[in-house]
Amino acid sequence: MITKSKLDRLFELLEQGASSSIRRIAAEQIGHLAAQHPSQTEQIINRITDIVLYKKSWSSRVSAAYALGIIASQLPKQSKSVFSEQIPSCSELGHRKRKLKQDAASSFLQLEDLNMKDIVNKGGRLLGSSGEELASTNMEDAEQQFKRLHTILGDYPLSENIVSNEDFEGKADSVAGWKPELNVFDKEGLIRNDNSTQDIKEEASDVVLEDSDFTHEWVFGKCFNKLRNHMFSLDWEVRHGAATGLRELLKYQATEACLDISYSLEANKILLEDIACRVLILLAVDRFCDFSGTLTVAPVREAASMALATVVLHLDISRVEQIGHYINILAHSDSWEVAHAAYISMQYIFAALNSCCSVLISLLKYSFDDITRGLLSEDQDICAAAARCLFPVVDIIAGDSPENPVPIEKLCNVLWQVVSTCDEDNSGVCDCLELICRLYKCVRQRNIEEANSLFSDHICQVFPFMLHNNASIREASRILANEILENNKILDNRPLFTIQQCRQWISILIALLFIEKDDCFVQTIFNNLGDVLHWYSGDDLFSSNMISRILELCLQRSFKDSSHVISTLLREEETLTLSGFQEVVSEIVDAEKRYGDREGRLLRFQQNICRMIAILFLERKEQSAMLCETLKQYLHSSSVFTLTAACQIFRYWYPRTMETGREEIMRLLRSKLEHFEQNSSDYVHFDEEAIDSFQLLNDILSIEKYLSSGKKSTKQKYSNIILNTSLTQLCEQGIQSYEQLDYENVSRILSEICGNYMPYFQELTAYGICKSTKSNRNEKNSVLDAVIWRVVNYLNNYKSRRTEFILQSQIVIVCSIILAQNMIQPDDDDYSIPHEEQINLPDKLTPYLLAMMNGLRYSSCVYLKQLSASALAFTCQLLVKKDKRKAVAKISENLFNYLMEALKVQSIDCQYSQRDGVLLAWKEICRVFGSNLLSSLPKMNELCLQVVENLPDSLESIPTHLTHALYFLKYTFKWWHTSLYRRCNEAVEKLTLFCGLRYNTADFDALDIATDALSEMIFYSHEFLIHIVRHLLPILDSNHKMERTEESILYALKAIRKVVLKLENEMIPCVSLFLMPLVSRMTHQNSEIRIIASETFGLLLRLLPLEDNSVKLGDTEKWLDEPEWQLQRENAKSFIHQLLGWKAREPYHLPVRLEGNIQLREYQRQGLEWLAFLNRYGLHGLLCDDMGLGKTLMTLCIIVGDTLEWAKCGFQKHSLVVAPSSVTAHWFQETRRFFGSSLSNIILYVESAKKRKKWLAHFDSSPLIITSYEIIRSDIEYFQGYQWNYLVLDEGHVIRNHHSKTAVAIRSLVAEHRLILSGTPVQNSVKDLWSLFDFLIPGFLGDETSFQERFVRPILKGKSLSCEQRDREQADILLETLHRQVLPFILRRMKSDVLAELPPKIIQNLSFEMNPLQAKLYNAVSGFLATSAKEQWLNDKSPSLHIFSALRCLQQICTHPVLLLDSGKDWIENVAEKLAIDVNVCYDWKCSSKFQCLYELFADLGLISHEEEEQVAQKEFKEESQETEWDMNEQDVGHRVLLFAQNRRTLDVVERLLFMEGPFQRLSYLRLEGTVSPIHRQAIITRFNSDPSISCMLLTTQIGGLGLNLTGADTVVFIEQDWNPVKDMQAMDRAHRIGQTRTVNVFKLITKGTLEEKIMKLQEMKTAVAESIVNRDNSSLQDLDTSQLLELFQFDSSDQQDTMEVKNDTESYHSSLKAGGPWESVLRTLPDLWDEEQYTSEFDWNMFVQSIQSGPKDINND
Fold first, then answer.
1. Residue 1432 lies in a domain
2. 866 or 587, which is more confident?
3. What is the DSSP string of 838-906?
4. Which of 307, 285, 311, 288 is nearest to 298 (CA)?
5. Which residue, 510, 667, 1028, 1618, has fewest beta-carbon neighbours within 10 Å?
6. C-alpha closest to that of 1609 among 1501, 1683, 1515
7. Same domain membership, residue 1376 and residue 1268
8. Spacing of C-alpha 463 from chain mean position
9. What is the full DSSP assignment across 309-345?
10. Which residues form a coiled coil (predicted)?
């Protein structure tokens, strides 16, 4: 049987998976589960069907349909086995066939009955949705569905003999609900059926078949019927889901339909024909579509067409031809949607029938004219669909078969006509171009001459689309042109262009180089360029000014200027693509402004243009001399762009020319480089430096003019600034040179101004002109401020720009020299290394290397960085080839150090710039050396891997070289060749140990880097994951006995989280291994550890359903097949099942026996297993068993067992038990009683401070220390120095006050396992629970404020007597939510459930009236208190008496008047005086009705004699007491009483008036309250339990209600009730617990009409709230599902609202409009649509063909 929750989790992933890959994996697993468990297959299928039909999410529907297909493909085909059995005679089958044909006419849609023209013209339309008033639901009855179908068909006369109500009806008790009502088999009595016996004909009686021989229920029956009936839903999502589901189902189960009754091939064909009819109707009436970019999206028509194609495979050829005829009718429709649907269906039918040539040829014969009409359609979508429908049949069309149904010449002419006549906005031309390309590839293989005449001669018609603004069209046209040119090169390389067309083509290539960035495409351009240039002579090609334009392009300094020159060139060559090019350039400019590297793009374009120039001149050798002169001229230029162009041209031209002037140019380049080296940058100037300098020079003159002509005060203010005429003269000279275009002189002047006068302008900005106050500020000063700032900014930018220019010049010269002298294939950017003797490196290589290094580190241009990186990597290859290892080592070391320096730069921008440049170099080096990286660069190996591999066993501090090695691995490992991964195995293992703090380091920055590096290495090689499992998971696993620190846990977690985030879905094979250790850290006291563990656990838990041990593992996951890890995987899954209650917990075997041959009861054994489960997985919990069930013993068992397990591993562990002082001795006695010989040196730390100190020295050797809450608060500093194994809080509700000193002290203790024992964890409020969990699992219930807002206040509001129904319901919901959240961490068993032998406990309330004295005093005091409080409130004074003190006064009157009257308070004496009450007279037990009731009770219990009763009893009390019932069956044994009061003073009065002076004098009794020393309390308890002569014990609930065992008593009496009901329950359970053999009677004495009755009602409310949270459900977790389990570990204080999918977008839309909500609320209700990638991947005809190839095909020719 499938685990229910696993299936639920798989469905959850299917619907809500984070990615399509996760959804698909979930679908596959659901399919496998369904196939493996046939008994549940139908249930799974029905659930999938609902998702397919009703989910708004596109991904959910498609994934669910895929799951349906998985199931369908794996189920056995029943039709074959049916045919193998004995079948009826031929006459019987013939009779059946005739009957089927007759019944089909009245039950199924048939092709011959359809009139597609009428359906198209008169039928209705199905759009997206018609609104809520017409919205379809999945609960439509048969009549509604029947009417809707006829509404869709419009006036078309589709009578009930074709489709009737029965087609839509279904019965719940039928496997396939549609089967009985269709009556295909049984209308004439062919099958025995009670529902159809009325019309059985006599002739049918001879051919009745037995069901047992020829029946089989089709498991997809209900699913098929549901999908079939929802094909015409008004919601497009439902239609799409139905069509998609039918597509997947019919791929594999088309031949199985109707197998639920005696199988008939004829019946199967009729049903498939019905589906075909329905799909055709759907194609005719569906009008839903949308647009994604330029793509028309018609998901319903696409899915329906694919379903139709799967059906066609199983129909006779005559039916297929009839379907083709109907599709042609659709293609003639005036509605573009219908015509579009026709061509879509053609495409999929042609694809499906590709292997059935005869059928396909037949269809193409009469479809060709319609396809041609579609190609010539003005509608671009129809044109595109018509072209796409021929993609699957290109081989047939281009074949040389005499039966070829399509005239290839006519088709090609039509296509070229479309290409030549369509406008620029027609996106359909893209598919036409692709079709031409496909045809060309096929035709050229058959007939080259025909290919040339049909295609090659038309290549120029493609030119207008090569610069189209649609990227898809550009790509299609380029691919076609490239195919033609490549093929022409292989053949005769004949000219395909005229001279003018060649010029146009070159101008288009130039424009493409400008707008495209793909390196592969650029390489293709240059390959074709050389071939084309061979066609013409130089004079013909260069007769125009094209070369001058191209040379002009390589010298442009801006993006805008370059695009302008290209536009001019296109215009001059009359290229018909100018508008498209300008639109593309406009888009590029917008994109580059926001995201791009405009300068780098310009330099890259310049490089390609220079490469083109080199190719052009190389093909025209007679003009090489002209190029030499041009290059010399460029090299003498003062323009950096001109110099760059010369270097780039030279780089491609030099290796392939033998021109004599090339060496002279090489010398010029070297001298230029020497000039840069020998001269300071101050003496190097470029024209580009003078850009925009005219404005600067004028600004400086205006500033000087203002300062020199200013007021005297201004001159004095700036007297320390040198003002002379030199600056003015420089500016005037600069302006004059600028006007004369002498930019080099302007550049020198700017350099002098920047060097000499920059401090002057900076000082101006620091003085008052720029910081004038608003009072003396005027408009003139504001303008001057702006001018000064503009000058300063320009000069700053000038300095950086000048540095970049110098750097650029050096880089391009150096790279050109290195590359030109050593390149074998200069036309390829992937440089090939020459032979060693051909390598030509400069004698002094250092300046070259320095220039490349500076380019990497300091250039801000990405292109220059990339150029430097490529050249440097190439140089390293040359050096390795020349065996110059020292030089290579130096380069490696410098690059390594530069990367470390870049990471230390403070400025983020500078750091990223330098780091990215150096990383580009390492990327190139890793790429070019590949698997030889470490052997060719041993220095690199020495600096990273060897450093990690040679880590010592201990580290006092992290060495710098280790940190550097970790950084290097973090940033570069992703580029390493895969063959190097095995070499890194040892380093990864050492790195894993380092992350686990095995080297005891405290450098946490280095640890962060180490975790980053480790996750990066594991991401690229999953084999390394074994080190995480082997070394880091044990650190988290609390069940693994090892020493660990908080820091080691934290950094192990960090590393694991980074690995999980990196690997994502690839963690699936080993996800279970990680869950168990993570759980043990999700409850850690350290918030950071807790949060990281919870987040990681949540990520992995969602993947758990996808882990399948039966799936074959990949090569990098083979280690999981080892028995060790297989066992761990199974244990991990077992843990999850145990946590959720799906599997019984593992039995726990206590390593020692309980002394005294004591055996644990069954429920105690189960409780111990729960505690062991918490221990095993590092969880913490509340043991909330009912009082008296042995919580102490179970806790001692787990403490002792775990302590001994650690001792076996050589570790001494210490545990701490904190308990109320009254039971600490009991803990000590119980420990020694059960484990005295197993656990020695137990410390009872409870005596005076002086005596306690002597025990401190024994703490280290003691396995268990027992102390009280009072002592832990005072001696907390002694306990904080230990990391406790177990920290147990007995009666842990003591810490419910979160801010108390005791609670704060206890939370400061660190423990591996935290446990609270309390029979009543929630006492006054649900906030008590938060305080307890803040100790157990801090943060689990959020912070205190959020918990108060989310739970406490609403619950209190909903439980008040005056609350509204809505508040009450909300409170119940919150209580249930809270209950579910804490469920896994609380174990609660009631005595009545687990102790059948425990006698019952009977609780009774004894109510009575006050006597006159009490009533008079009660009324007077309550009136006085109310009046006093009102007066003080009106006078705005704080009350003199606290509210609780006032209420206590009323309680005292109810108990005995003397408690209040003798309190010594003045206001009480005044009240007594007014009432004339004598206090001395009140010292009589008869003055209290409660005492008289107590006396009556004792008399009924037989504790006092009846003679005394007759003397003192009052008649009214006797009558009332006779009405009270209690269990007196054991009076002969002698009742013993526990008498509880709230405080000592009440006990004093009871003892004096009843036991010392009153009627109870002869009763022996004991007393236990706060004045008794804790060390003496246990002796009193022992005496009471062992001495039956003691009739009564007087106790306070504060002392006697906690942890005591008083089973010697069988009666409990409460003189007073506590506001907290838990205290009373705890007190009564001192007697009702294990060891009690008699019925326990509990009596509560309550005075009628007083405060005591209200206290009882409050107790009832508090008890109800507590039981709502902690109840019997906490003994099992079986009801907890996956989503609730995930919610358990969301440490979030905010409200978690369930995200529910909107089922009706129309309804939400209208309701939002009615409410007048914002548009955002409307948008939120819109369904999840699709993106273009989803659409194209779902409706890919190639993938569709592949998927149906595995399915059966059954085309019949009869």
1. yes
2. 866
3. G----S--HHHHHHHHHHHHH---HHHHHHHHHHHHHHHHHHHHTT-HHHHHHHHHHHHHHHHHHHH-S
4. 288
5. 667
6. 1501
7. yes
8. 47
9. HHHHTTSBHHHHHHHHHHHHHHHT-SSHHHHHHHHHH
10. none
Nearest CA among 1379, 1334, 1549 for reference residue 1456: 1549
What predicted TM-score, i.e. pTM, was given to this entire model? Answer: 0.66
Rounded distance between C-alpha atoms, residue 944 and residue 976, angstroms: 13
Tokens encoding 802: 């000048």
**Can you read off the two tokens belonging to residue 105?**
């006419």
What is the CATH classification number for the domain harbouring 41?
Answer: 1.25.10
Residue matched to tokens 């609104």: 131
Domain end among 1109, 1143, 1177: 1143
Residues 1219 and 1346 in one domain: yes
Q: How many CA atoms lie within 13 A of 1016 on its CB side?
A: 18
- Phi–psi pair at 1645, nearest 5 degrees: -90, 115
CA angle in degrees (0–180, nearest 5) for 1535-1541-1543: 145
- The per-residue DSSP string of 68-105 comes to HHHHHHHSPPHHHHHHHS----HHHHHHHHHHHHHHHH
Gap between the Cα atoms of 1269 and 62, Å rounded: 61
Q: Please tell me the predicted confidence (pLDDT) of residue 110.
A: 85
pLDDT score for 99: 52
User: Using an 8 Å Cβ cutoff, are 832 and 819 in contact?
Assistant: no
- Cβ–Cβ < 8 Å for 476, 483: no
Residue 956, beta-bridge partner list:
none
Q: Same domain, yes or no, for 465 and 566?
A: no
Same domain, 1138 and 1223: no
Reply yes or no on whether the pLDDT at 166 is more than 60: no
CATH number, domain of 1617, equals 3.40.50.300
Using DSSP, state whether 1404 is helix, strand or coil. Answer: strand
Helical axes 1412-1434 vs 1443-1455, angle rounded to 10°:
170
Give the pairing type, strands 1592-1596 and 1401-1408: unpaired
> Domain range for residue 614?
501-619
Mean pLDDT of 581-604: 66
Extract the tokens encoding 740.
């004369």
Task: Please check whether residue 1417 is in contact with residue 1453, taking contact to mean a CB–CB distance below 8 angstroms.
Answer: yes
Please report which helix (H) or strand (E) contains residue 1310, including its range. strand 1310-1317
> At 1372, which amino acid appears?
D
Residue 1613: pLDDT band with limits 50, 70, 90: very high
What is the model's pLDDT at position 1198?
93
- Tell me: do 1293 and 1317 sit in the same domain: yes
Residue pLDDT, tens place only, 309-332? 999 888 888 888 899 999 999 998
Both 197 and 223 in one domain: the answer is yes
Model pLDDT for residues 103-161, shown as the tens digit of each residue: 444 467 888 888 888 888 877 788 765 444 333 334 444 455 545 454 555 444 443 33
Q: Is residue 687 classed as helix, strand or coil in its secondary structure?
A: helix
- Between CA 1138 and CA 94 the distance in angstroms is 61
| Residue 429 is assigned to a structural domain of this protein | yes
Residue 1428, token pair as written in the block? 């006093």
Tell me if 1374 sits within 8 A of 1350, measured CB to CB. yes
DSSP string covering 716-772:
HHTTTS---HHHHHHHHHHHHHHHTT-HHHHHHHHHHHHHHHHHHHHHHHHSTTTT-
pLDDT per position as a tens digit, 1137-1171 = 776 566 677 788 888 888 877 888 888 888 898 89
Same domain membership, residue 290 and residue 413: no
Rounded to whole angstroms, how far apart are CA atoms 1607 and 1637?
8
Asked whether 1538 and 1627 are in contact (CB, 8 A), the reply is yes
Q: Give the burial string for 1272-1309 (b: 16+ CB within 10 Å, else e).
A: bbebbebbeebebbbbbbbbbbbbbebeeebbebbeeb
Dihedral, CA of residue 843, residue 845, residue 847 and residue 848, to nearest 10:
120
The total domain count for the chain is 9
Final residue belonging to a domain, choices 1666, 1683, 1706: 1666
Q: What percent of the chain has pLDDT over 90?
A: 10
